[in-house]
Amino acid sequence: MNSCVVYGKTMAAWSVGIAMLLSSCTTGVRTALSEKELLGKQIFFDESLSEPAGQSCGTCHEPSKGFADKYGRITSEGAVQGLFSNRNAMTCSYVAYVPALYYDDEDETYVGGLFWDGRVNSLEEQAGQPFINPLEMGNKDSRMVVGKFRRTAYYPDFVRLYGEIASDDSLFSKILDALAAYERSVEVNPYTSKYDAYLEGKCKLTKQEKKGLALFKEKGMCAECHVLEKDERAGRVLFTDHTYDNLGIPSNPDNPFFHVSPPYNTVGRDTMDLGLGAFLGDSAEFGKFRVPTLRNIALTAPYGHNGYFKTLEEIVHFYNVRDVEDYPAPEYAATVNREELGNLGLSPEEEAAIVAFMQALTDGYR
């Protein structure tokens, strides 16, 4: 897989003066990005906008890693050395189609919202938080971000697109607007996996991949949450229903956040992540996290909200045998899903077939 990442001064030197330019994305496919999308891409990979400088959005959302953490870490280290966030970095690919958080009365479940816990409802809101999170890009406030942004080499391109903006708050909102435009672009959402080609009749799945697809639909029960129907917003299969679940994942003893000092972590190893329930203040939702897309899942290790599983094989095996093998206790036990995983009866060969199918969801096949 080829990478389109260009950092620092190289990226800042790009010009977005042409209305449509061809840009090589991670899959090697030539894609047309608009001026706004190209501006958003420059911001996305600009390492000068953190405090201290050295971290960009792309550090935790690297294209060659399926837009997940550049280094494949359990949780990502922030711009300040030694400060780690408490959750594994989700891919930002295909999240443009996640709806705003709402409660589905028919299915009696929450749906949508960005981040693992659904705490924001738009790409623009999502893009703004890392800039001013002390455990991520480390800026004191949005004014600090704007001050750095006005000094970038590509700021004149921003002015040409948006005009001169005196208000710091308004300028920050336009920065987020450009970032969201890039995250909605074909470069971040290319639909170029083998499975896409298969759906279009342009290739055939191997015998093992076809077996994995059948198991994914039925015996493995994966498609109960990672649905195979077209998403209404995307018009494509996203392999998620955007709902929330507690899979019974144990606390990860290797989570570097446990060693982060107060005021960011006041209880050390005893930290318990309550997910959606903490955001809502609702104990019925404690321990539940949003079901992520499986697109590019083979690239985005480790897995789970706390990065407990190092490989696809490990997490598929956990889904299969959680309740019949000796795993540590769930991080939060009361709301664990006991119906759709834990004792599926899959053989080792069947587990391997499901993994093979999920590997066919990686962009760059065509």
TrEMBL record:
Its main location: other. PROSITE patterns: CYTC (PS51007). InterPro entries: Cyt_c-like_dom (IPR009056), Cyt_c-like_dom_sf (IPR036909), Cytochrome_c_Peroxidase/MauG (IPR051395), Di-haem_cyt_c_peroxidsae (IPR004852). Gene3D superfamilies: Cytochrome c-like domain (1.10.760.10). It comes from the Bacteria. The keyword Magnesium does not apply. GO terms for molecular function: cytochrome-c peroxidase activity; electron transfer activity; heme binding; metal ion binding. The chain crosses the membrane at residues 12-33. Residues 207-362 form the Cytochrome c domain. GO terms for cellular component: cell envelope. The keyword Disulfide bond does not apply. Keywords: Heme, Iron, Membrane, Metal-binding, Oxidoreductase, Signal, Transmembrane, Transmembrane helix. It is found in: Cell envelope. This is Cytochrome B6. It comes from Parabacteroides acidifaciens.
